[in-house]
Amino acid sequence: MSQLSKIWQSCINNPVKTIIIAAVFVRLLIFFLYGHITEYPDSEDYRKLAVRLMNFDLEGYEGERPPGYPLLMCFAGMSDLVVVFFQLVMGVCTLVFAYKTLLVLEIDKRLALIATLFGVSYLPAVFFEFAILTETFTLLVITLIFYLFLGIIKGRKTRGRRYIWISLLCCYLVFIKVFYINLAVILFVLLVWHNRKSLKSGFKKYIMVLLMPLFFFLGWSYVNKLNTGYFVSSTFYGFNLAQNCVRFAGNTTPEYQEIGDIYVKYRSDTIRNREIAMTIWQAYPELKATTGLSFPDLSKELYDYSIATIKKNPVDYLGQVFISWRDFWKTSLYWEAYNFAVPESMDIVMYVNYGERIVLQLIKILFVLLIPYNIIIACRKRKMKPEAFISLIVLTASLLQAFATYGTNSRFSFPFEILMVTSVLLNMLQYYHRKKVIIRSN
Questions:
Q1: Fewest 10 Å CB contacts: which of 39, 185, 257, 314?
Q2: Is the pTM of this model over 0.90?
Q3: 102-115 residue pLDDT tens
């Protein structure tokens, strides 16, 4: 046996150790080459809430962000370096549980290890770990949820504590980003449907998956009600919906024409700068000065403006929703390319990043094409396989975010990318096994 064969056999015999060593190596390499913590406008919002949480003072908070990620910053002592360290550890843990999920789905150990090692080398995910953003944390929580959920679907031990863990993880997921309350709802519906023959015996466990996250969602909305006067999970809601009106912003009702005119003025400038999705945020200072409203009040006004404008332009709105939905399936890369600690390495890392994103983009396109197939097969057989569950969950998330906002939509898909790759891998294995059976029968 050659030395390489011995090394590979050792990797197969110690898969988790192999994944951890490889993942740590890649992260150390990027740490030395990049050596930079990336910040975005969102980062400061999280930091402000974290300071309030540390001081136990939410009085007057305008309700922009939920507390999940700021709590992590508090736990890190408000140190960005410690936050990044936590996120690097999360990235390694995510890969380990992604591998374990493949084993739950009865994928061969060797193939599962190879697929996970490809994930280890996916650099855009590593760069998220160096950014003060929620994506890495969200990815870990969603991966853990589906590790437990798919274990239940595959008929493994379904003790009540698995449902408790799913419920608790969904609770914290809502606290990271309130949009993900939809995941708790979808999981509840799928659990009820999957176990419909024994519904009476397990309904209490299924409803727990929904009720606990819903309690957290409503609880945070009530906190916002106390501070802002609006029972909403986030006071961004009006701005987010207004982003979907950007292409027909001026064609509104007389009541909101002034808002529409300001919106159009800034849209004309942003078209030249090619950042049309963020127009409403560039118009925000003038909108605030013109209306004299606070951030929560202006968000409510923009929500009313959006509803009126969408009713007047339903076809244009649906066209914009399609654009938002299409953007969901793009890949993300969040970094500052010209801030490398070792500038000479930037070009090489950039080409690796773009090459990997092309591969993932092709996988995402294949996943989208397979969604109808997986759902139709499930309907015909009245039994869902894991790839059908994944297809339904990701499709629902893609549609909901598209109706809600237009902007950095690909960030919504990042936490589901491991699931998409897993689903495509399952479909490919099924095709391979069917083809093998046909060849043997002939």
A1: 314
A2: yes
A3: 999 999 999 999 99
Backbone torsion region of residue 133, taken as left when φ is above 0, otherwise alpha when ψ lies between -120 and 50, otherwise beta: beta
275 pLDDT above the threshold of 80: no
Give the number of domains in the chain: 2
Contact 140, 126 (CB under 8 A): no
Are 203 and 282 found together in one domain?
Answer: no
For the cut 80, the answer to whether the pLDDT of residue 414 exceeds it is: yes
Picking from 286, 312, 338, the residue at the C-terminal end of a domain is 312
Using the CB atoms, write b or e for 43-70: b if 16+ within 10 Å.
beebbebbebbeeeeeeebbbbbbbbbb
pLDDT tens sequence across 293-305: 999 999 999 999 9
Which residue range(s) make up the domain with 259? Answer: 246-312
For residue range 210-256, what is the model confidence (pLDDT) as tens digits? 999 999 999 999 999 999 999 999 999 999 999 999 999 999 999 99
Please give the Cα distance from 214 to 203 (Å, whole number). 17
The answer to whether position 437 is within a domain reads yes
As a whole number, the mean pLDDT across the chain is 90
